[in-house]
Write a structure and sequence with these properties.
Blueprint (H helix, E strand, L loop, with lengths): L2 E5 L3 H12 L4 E5 L2 H10 L4 E5 L1 E2 L2 E2 H11 L4 E6 L4 H9 L4 E4 L3 H32 L10 H14 L5 E4 L6 H10 L8 E5 L5 H9 E2 L11 E2 L1 H4 L4 E5 L6 H13 L1 E3 L6 E3 L3 E6 L3 H6 L5 H7 L2 E4 L10 H15 L6 E2 L1 H9 L5 H15 L4 E2 L6 H8 L12 H15 L4 H8 L3 H10 L4
Parallel strand pairs: 1-2, 1-3, 3-6, 6-7, 8-15, 8-16, 9-12, 12-15, 17-18
Antiparallel strand pairs: 4-5, 10-11, 13-14
Helix pairs in contact: 3-4, 6-7, 10-12, 13-15, 17-18, 18-19
């Protein structure tokens, strides 16, 4: 917008400055004192303020403090007829962008205004990006209306406002990191760092260094001190994905962090203290891992203060259509294609798929279809080969033969159940069977 407010009780100087600055393409608003200036700030969206230090009803130095408290994004340039060092120091402390003496302003004011405007523009871009990032990782952006998903979201919202350690469980690709990020953003740590690490991606030595850092000389090549993830995330959240893959001796070190907030860097003899929240995730059954002596029982009870289970996609097929359209918008925009529709048969094929890779697999399938599609609608022809096998009944549940009657019945009931988005009463009506019979068959065939 490039709006500038000039505050000065000398009308001639105010008018002259307005003309000079207006010639640069800025919109200028004028005020003669503190009171009228504050009113102008309420009425107009001002980016930069040029203010005299001596005003009839107050000090420009104090006024700059009031303006910054109400509008932190505004940049303030103070003008004075007297070069006063204490005033200039206080002005900068109060948040003024710069402080110049009248008489020097003719050559300095325009470059100074441009620099102040650049700072405002940059600050607003950062603010906008932060809002977009916060929205991207908020609970509102988790897609799906199924009861199991909404239940998980409700639980996550409640625990987000606390500092409790959270354990997210579920198969690979069910969105555990998305939930972890949303919990972080919904907490009082939301403005601090969120750092994720996949415990399965590193060897024991590398993971220890990644998490806790090292002192100079700890090993060959360690020429200087290095911070680990826990230190970098101090005040924020650490997300430990695939925590079931963490080696036992590192589990003991993690347990100490949870209990005391302290740890030893690799090669250090002095403890480092941090304040972090830990969110962990796993696709393993940690109780079984404990029984097999692969996971510490005491650590399990510390990380599972609050558990949230994320159901696999095949158990919430009602969410598939909405997610498919979301990914379609994402990838069609990315590839500059105008694809805005998905055929009914395509959606039906998606709902029949077992989704071993869950949401991640669905995302990949939609991206593939967008690449292959030439029209404005996704058709079944763009689906991978295994989808067509499912549709034709050649691939079914491993406990059922592809050629027996039970298999055909299961596929038909699943199609109707998906078509009604899980409405059992409507599915029973379309199948022309009693509701109690449908419940029994759903249980027999493990359809949900």
């Amino acid at each position: 917008m490039k709006n500038i407010l000039i505050i000065d009780d000398e009308e001639k100087l105010r008018t002259l400055l307005s003309k000079i600055i207006s010639l640069e393409g800025f919109t200028v608003v004028q005020a003669a004192d503190c009171k009228s200036a504050l009113k102008k700030l309420e009425q107009s969206e001002i980016e930069v303020v040029i203010c005299d230090v001596k005003l009839p009803d107050g000090s420009g130095v104090e006024l700059s403090k009031t303006i910054k408290e109400k509008n932190p994004a505004i940049e303030i340039i103070l003008l004075t007829a007297y070069g006063n060092i204490p005033d200039s120091v206080q002005a900068i402390k109060n948040g003024a962008f710069d402080y110049i003496t009248k008489g020097d302003d003719n050559n300095k004011i325009i470059p100074l205004v441009y620099r102040a405007m650049e700072k405002v523009t940059l600050a607003r871009r950062v603010q906008q990006l932060e809002k977009q990032l916060g929205k991207k990782y908020s609970f509102e952006c988790i897609i799906g209306e199924s009861k199991t998903l909404q239940g998980a979201i409700d639980e996550a919202r409640k625990v987000a406002t606390t500092d409790a350690t959270v354990l997210l469980t579920g198969e690979t690709g069910t969105g555990k990191e998305v939930f972890a990020q949303a919990i972080h953003n919904g907490s009082n740590r939301g403005k601090q760092n969120f750092i994720a690490v996949n415990c399965a991606a590193f060897s024991k030595e590398l993971l220890e260094n990644e998490l806790f850092g090292h002192k100079a000389g700890a090993f060959t090549g360690a020429i200087k001190d290095s911070k680990g993830i826990f230190e970098e995330a101090n005040g924020g959240t650490v997300f430990l994905d695939e925590i079931g893959e963490m080696p036992l001796d590192l589990q003991a070190k993690l347990l100490r962090v949870l209990e005391t907030g302290e740890f030893l860097k690799v090669g250090d003899s002095k403890t480092t203290k941090v304040n972090v929240r830990i969110i962990a995730a796993t696709n393993r059954d940690l109780q079984q891992e404990i029984a097999s002596f692969h996971f510490r029982e005491d650590l399990f009870y510390r990380i599972s203060v609050f558990q949230i289970h994320l159901s696999p996609l095949r158990e919430r097929t009602v969410d598939i259509e909405e997610m498919a359209h979301h990914f379609l918008r994402q990838f069609s925009n990315k590839s500059n294609k105008k694809i805005d529709k998905i055929s009914k048969s395509y959606i039906e094929s998606l709902k029949l798929h077992p989704w071993k890779g869950n949401i991640r697999e669905l995302k990949n399938v939609i991206e593939r279809s967008v690449i292959l599609s030439e029209g404005d609608e996704l058709e079944t022809g763009s689906l991978p080969a295994d989808f067509h096998l499912h549709k034709n009944g050649a691939v079914t549940d491993s406990t059922l033969s592809a050629f027996d009657l039970a298999s055909a019945e299961k596929i038909h009931i699943q199609k109707v159940f998906n078509y009604t988005n899980g409405n059992k009463t409507e599915a029973a009506r379309l199948l022309n069977i009693a509701l109690t019979t449908l419940y029994r068959k759903l249980d027999d065939y493990k359809i949900s």
